[in-house]
Amino acid sequence: MANKFKWYVVWVGDHPGIYDSWEECKLQVERYPGARYKSFSSREEAVAAFRGDNSAQMGILRSIVGGIGSRPVVNYEAFPEIISDSLAVDAACSGNPGVMEYRGVWVATGEEAFRKGPFPNATNNIGEFLAIVHGLALLKQMGRSDMPIYSDSRTGQAWVRDRRCKTTLQRNEGNAKLFEIVERAERWLENNTYHNRIIKWNTEEWGEIPADFGRK
Fold this sequence. Notes:
Elements: E1 7-12, E2 17-19, H1 22-29, E3 36-40, H2 43-51, H3 56-64, E4 87-95, E5 98-106, E6 112-122, H4 124-142, E7 149-151, H5 154-161, H6 176-191, E8 198-200, H7 203-206
Parallel strand pairs: 4-7, 7-8
Antiparallel strand pairs: 1-2, 1-3, 4-5, 5-6
């Protein structure tokens, strides 16, 4: 009979590590925002995945966890004009329309500030718009009106300036939740002021934005 014993790797949770029971793993990830974990059939596989060894298994894992560990490295010393005390946002969409996620990353540390999705029947432009609005709302809550937001999407920035998500995507049963979030974002823009600069990330010169999902 096949061995049903499993090992669990927690990359993002209360205490990242390797656990030999679901009960212990669950304690680390339950109610933890943006938790990232996966089960393996052997301890060797779990150890290799946790350490980030180069293997076919890790290629699968990186796609599952959204490119953790593969974020492009920016040579900040070569580009002193980049403001390190900032928030970078980005979206990724598999297909158009397709499954979309968006997130924000603190430029100074590379740590994830937020991640939302996946959303089915969505577009990348909607994700870019939502990522900027999410970043603005977060920084306002934190009292950081002085912190700029980097985005590599001219469309997303234009929609935020117009306070409207000008997508041509049709609303349907599969993306109804997404459109509810879009409407909340538009209401936030209508009812709030912000002073944060939204700066276009210079991808051609600086490389991929720090919030890039690394799936290209």
